[in-house]
Design a protein that fits this description.
Elements: E1 3-11, E2 17-25, E3 27-29, E4 38-40, E5 46-54, E6 59-64, E7 70-76, E8 78-83, E9 88-92, E10 96-100, E11 107-111, E12 117-124
Parallel strand pairs: 1-10
Antiparallel strand pairs: 1-2, 3-4, 5-12, 6-11, 7-10, 7-12, 8-9, 8-11
Length: 128
């Protein structure tokens, strides 16, 4: 069975940010008949899509929470995120980050590649 893997950045009850590795199983469905079936999984309801770009050397090193729940899909370059618990992860092209640390101590971000970073972002719909 195929899985989609991603990393979640979230805030615990004391306001500390942490990373969590997650995966979603994909099911075989007739996605685009008459083409052959594809492996598909529903993810999260979306409100908006956007592009985010940053030059080499850009840094948001002052800790901050995410301004909204969003998914970042890295398309070019590489960036590093440090959670308030001290854990750090690198996100190269092809990686997916679910940002849910919308309150608390937050995280710091910096571009670590010599290339510009290009991210396809998806702002998530309110679930309330």
């Amino acid at each position: 069975m195929q899985h989609a893997r991603y990393i979640r950045l979230y805030t615990d009850e004391s306001g500390e940010s942490h990373f969590e590795d997650l995966k979603i199983p994909l099911s075989t469905v007739d996605f685009a008949p008459p083409a052959a079936p594809l492996n598909v999984a529903q993810f999260l309801p979306a409100a908006q899509c956007l592009w985010v770009g940053a030059p080499p050397g850009w840094a948001g090193e002052k800790p901050h929470p995410s301004p909204r729940r969003q998914v970042f899909c890295a398309l070019q370059g590489e960036y590093e995120v440090t959670a308030s618990d001290g854990g750090a992860r690198r996100f190269p092209a092809g990686s997916v980050l679910l940002l849910e640390d919308t309150w608390g101590k937050g995280h710091a971000t910096r571009i670590i590649s010599e290339d510009e970073v290009l991210i396809f972002g998806v702002v998530l719909a309110d679930t309330e």
